[in-house]
């Protein structure tokens, strides 16, 4: 039985919206970026490497889908994001959108 | 200039209501009172003792002051923590109290809270500590009067209750220390960024 691991960027008051510059939070968007570090990247990469599936809601899936296919990096983060089997939960997406 | 240090028990979802007991504060229909109990460890007591030793005043909202006063005032001399709490000068902020005589060494602040706190901060001395006191903490946060947050973060999500940080306020902080304690609580200390 696989474990479901929720991996989030989160503020001290429990907010997890738009950490990376996504549109939804206006000028407060991208709040995680000033604190980015190689170590954080490594931690996220290790998490990806320890997983063999990615489960997402529709909005997050679309944000990832718009970004990752055109990204390459030296540590293999984008490769892993692109090659992992992904499951997107949505009542509105059609099969074609995936 | 003294630092104002907000010292709180807080859940992972930012709730700080009634950490110590079921009847401590049931406002809003809060039913989770006492949620810190299962994680008690002597290191937490030692941490608070240390915080109090770096402070020479307590600034409290009315409810927290009444809860603390009700607990500590009757304790006979000789209990190390109660002695510290009883002898420490206390400032209680309230528009409804007419006297602060229920707990020794207490002074009542009835109006101009922000100005009164600025005056306290300007005096020489050690830290001014606040615990609990959600309404007061929100007011001070909104006026950028909080120099440090010393948070004991518990591995629990309560889903409802009074929040440490006020809705709608952006606060930028700088991590001073992060230290896991043996029972799964993490001490996180932040200063104003």
What are its keywords?
heterodimer; A: 98 residues; alpha+beta; two-stranded parallel ribbon; globular; B: 193 residues; alpha/beta; Dihydrofolate Reductase, subunit A
Question: What does this molecule look like?
Answer:
The complex is a heterodimer of chains A (98) and B (193). Chain A is α+β, with helices and mostly antiparallel strands. Chain A has a domain at 23-90. Chain A is built from three helices and two strands, in the order H-E-H-H-E. Chain A has helices at 38-49, 58-67, 77-83; strands at residues 54-57, 86-89. Chain A has a two-stranded parallel sheet with strand order 1-2. The relative contact order of chain A is 0.14. With 193 residues, chain B is an alpha/beta fold. Chain B has an eight-stranded mixed sheet with strand order 4-3-2-5-1-6-8-7, sandwiched between helices. Chain B is 26% helix and 26% strand. Chain B has a domain at 1-13 and 40-157: Dihydrofolate Reductase, subunit A (3-Layer(aba) Sandwich).
């Amino acid at each position: 039985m696989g474990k479901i691991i929720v991996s989030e960027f989160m503020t001290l008051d429990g907010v997890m919206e738009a950490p990376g510059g996504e549109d939804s939070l206006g000028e407060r968007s991208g709040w995680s970026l000033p604190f980015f570090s190689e170590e954080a990247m490594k931690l996220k990469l290790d998490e990806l490497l320890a997983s063999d599936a990615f489960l997402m809601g529709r909005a997050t899936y679309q944000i990832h889908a718009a970004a990752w296919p055109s990204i390459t990096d030296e540590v293999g983060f984008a490769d892993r994001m692109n090659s992992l089997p992904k499951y997107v939960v949505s009542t509105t997406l059609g099969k074609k959108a995936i | 200039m003294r630092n104002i240090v907000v010292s709180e028990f807080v859940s992972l979802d930012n709730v700080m209501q009634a950490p110590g007991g079921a009847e401590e504060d049931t406002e809003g229909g809060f039913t989770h009172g006492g949620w810190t109990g299962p994680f008690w460890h002597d290191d937490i007591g030692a941490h608070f003792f240390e915080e109090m030793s770096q402070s020479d005043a307590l600034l409290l909202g009315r409810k927290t002051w009444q809860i603390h006063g009700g607990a500590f005032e009757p304790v006979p001399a000789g209990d190390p923590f109660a002695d510290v709490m009883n002898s420490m000068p206390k400032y209680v902020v309230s528009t409804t109290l007419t006297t602060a005589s229920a707990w020794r060494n207490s002074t009542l602040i009835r109006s101009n809270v922000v100005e009164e706190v600025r005056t306290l901060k300007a005096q020489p001395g050690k830290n001014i500590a606040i615990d609990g006191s959600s309404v007061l903490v929100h007011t001070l946060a909104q006026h950028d009067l909080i120099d440090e947050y010393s948070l004991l973060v518990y591995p629990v999500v309560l889903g409802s209750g009074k929040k440490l940080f006020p809705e709608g306020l952006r606060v930028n902080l700088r991590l001073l220390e992060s230290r896991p304690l043996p029972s799964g609580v993490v001490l996180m200390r932040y200063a104003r960024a």
